[in-house]
Amino acid sequence: MTTHSDDVAAVNETVATLLNRRSIRKFKADPIDDDTRAVLETVAQHAASSQYLNDWSAIRISDPSIKAKFAEIGHQPYIAEAPLLYLFILDEQRNARIAERKGVDTSSPDWGLASSYRFTQAQNDAVLALHAMETAAYSLGLGCVILGSLLNDIPELIKLCHLPKYTYPVLGLAIGKPDQEPALKPRMPRTMQFFENQYPAADDAASLDGLEEFDETVHQYYDLRNTDRPVDAFSDQIAKVSTQNVNDKSLLDKATAQGFHLEK
């Protein structure tokens, strides 16, 4: 059955690239040339930025020993094999230095760029920049995987990359020439994620229409990381994750240690 999205993808390369996006976890050993890298980094710089603060940065990881540590933190060996590896960070340190040049006292508890609002906006900016780079990489025939797993040990990331006060790790991004072709992961019905004017009431059963069919579709999907069995149904995945203890992954204490005031 041909859908409207299929029609759009047929005439728009950007949409086709986005609709065919899939995480790549196995890369060829070929390095990424400097010109391509420059294009990817420049595209990231052109992403939207809240109030034009440019309050993010990215650490390019080329040291094999640091790559190996990243792989250990993420419990994913392929991280160490990525030809191009970045850690995107929210960055108010640069803005602190700039403000200080203009006579601003950044040690004041009222210094605005250390607030929870700016922390969140800077985090958003870093994600937008990463996504722009990821999309550009896919459009150039490369493959990527976003690495939330690096946040398993934030203090170690801070130590490894010498992240100063007013910076904080957000996500990693591994890029390379794909050496696998995973199937597209199923997406839930749009009616479960897009609403008109307001969020559905909690007792609105219709808002979950299509869940059973989606569960079955997901269950028929085979992930290349475990090809001998189908993936758990979506509902089962949600139930499992919702009962996991993540107290050791708290944000507030680690962000406070980096100079941020998330209580404000």
Describe this structure as you would to a colleague.
- It is a single chain.
- The chain is of the alpha+beta class and 264 residues long.
- The chain has two domains: 4-183, NADH Oxidase; 190-242, no CATH class.
- Helix content is 39%, strand content 11%.
- It is built from ten helices and four strands.
- Helix 1 packs across helix 2 and helix 3 (34-45) crosses helix 6 (116-139).
- Model regions low in confidence, pLDDT < 50 over at least 5 residues: none
Could you give a short account of the major beta sheet?
4 strands, antiparallel
Number of strands: 4
The CATH homologous superfamily of the largest domain: NADH Oxidase
End-to-end distance: 52 Å
Strand line-up of the largest beta sheet = 1-2-4-3
Q: How much of the polypeptide forms β-strand, as a percent range?
A: 5-15%
Could you provide a short overview of the structure?
The protein is built from 10 helices and 4 strands; from the N terminus they run αααβαβααβαβααα. It has 264 residues and is an alpha+beta fold.
Which properties best describe this structure?
oxidoreductase activity; 4 strands; 2 domains; 264 residues; alpha+beta; single chain; Flavin_OxRdtase_Frp; four-stranded antiparallel sheet
